[in-house]
UniProtKB/TrEMBL annotation:
Localization annotation: Cytoplasm
Gene that encodes the chain: dapA_2
Protein's name according to its UniProt entry: 4-hydroxy-tetrahydrodipicolinate synthase
Its EC number(s): 4.3.3.7
Family: Belongs to the DapA family.
Annotated source species: Marinomonas pontica
PANTHER family named in the record: 4-HYDROXY-2-OXOGLUTARATE ALDOLASE, MITOCHONDRIAL (PTHR12128:SF66), DIHYDRODIPICOLINATE SYNTHASE (PTHR12128)
Amino acid sequence: MITGSLVALITPMSADGAVDTKKLDDLIEFHINEGTHGIVAVGTTGESSTLTPEEHANVIRQVVNTVKGRVPVIAGTGANATHEAIDLTRSAKDAGADACLLVTPYYNKPTQEGLFQHFKAIADAVDIPQILYNVPGRTACDMQNDTVVRLSTIKNIVGIKDATGNLERGEALIKALPDRFAVYSGDDPTAVSLMLLGGKGNISVTANVAPRAVAQAAEAALAGNADQAHAIDTTISSLHTNLFLESNPIPVKWACSQLGLCEEGIRLPLTPLSEQYHAAVRQALIEAGALLV
């Protein structure tokens, strides 16, 4: 089972929006050196929605090749067309990913039965560990706990990224699922609390700029050390908030550029962080110890 701090890695881009492969390699080494437990490539934070299929596959392949088995690599392969998700998942398996992360279909708003059949079809088609991803605030599609429990009976569906931020719902889900099935937080502000309730890790945006602190908080929470976990998390709590002042990954890409981890490149329809938020994000980086005054 994959556990701990799993960074939802940005896809670094140059000013013209081209994928910056050199910076991608540098980011991977940065995270491994800082103690990140796993890398999620080309998820929401990695701008999966604006990469071409070829770029999507190339980024996953590069991450796998650069990591060289040092930490698990989870590839974002979700789509709102089942056949497209199958193609992306098959490509990620061929590239050597350890698991795939599959978001609920966005925009077309399937029923709960449609969600079950969608994820079952992908699991049947591609024999690789698969992690469901429920983020109704972005997709307008909410996968109910009962549907997740149904899907947990499929052997290669092994977990879910719960980005609802609802701890009561998350706790109920953990209690309803078999021990082999992992619940990961997809909400940085509540991640430590969810792990203390039995969650297995945090698929984190904040880890892009504060990887060591996020990893240490996860380690403490998974060990049941609540006071230590919350104390560490408090040092980065302003990042959890200010990295969402505009749509993710706008603020975190700007923050990464301020740390010298990448250029400010981002693709339309996303635009660079509005100047009115620069001071707040910079202050959060300073408070977290990521940026020196």
